[in-house]
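From the thread on structure requests for the teaching lab: each student submitted one protein with a one-line request. Submission from student K.M.:

"Model DUF1885 domain-containing protein from Peribacillus deserti, tokens only."
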Amino acid sequence: MSENAYIKLVDSSTQQTVTLDELKEWFRYYKDITSKTGKQVEWNYSDKAFPYEIKETPEDSSGWFYLASREDRYKHIILGVSTEKILLDDETEKIQSYIQITLPESSTFGDKGKANEFSKFLAKKLKGELHLFNGRVMYYYPRR
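Reply posted by the TA:
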């Protein structure tokens, strides 16, 4: 059975919405900064730090893409963006954007570790509310 983690963009997040293209740019930025770590220690760390490439399907407009790896310990991570209606304390409804990170059944424990790393990175950058695969919640925004 697949597992899901979510990064919810709350009122105090740096952005209220995120597009698929922005998510791809964050992925490229993350790969870039992890490869710089390898340069500092003079080791080809970029191939091991986050060994995924973006793979797109013919139905790109559906709001998701997946990351595929050629490494033997890693397989796939699916990333998508969407919105949901939430009920506020004053009983009004609001549309809230979120990023969904999915591990399909074929994913490995290595995929789960890398997905956790990337989701924490994204939640920190966006100051979001991270709902981890194990059901726990991490708050990366200033709470009142």
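TA comment: The chain has three helices and seven strands. The first helix runs from residue 20 to 40.
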